[in-house]
Amino acid sequence: MVSTTLDPTHDIIAANYAVAENNYSTLIATDPMGPESFDMRR
Known about the structure:
Blueprint: H1 8-30
């Protein structure tokens, strides 16, 4: 991962966010009810 900032805390948060986004996408893709059943963006 290329750091876009000199703040290591920001890099960690960004990495965690990327993982969360990936998990969310996986959840939606495998959720028979579709995106409406679990929408964390609301």
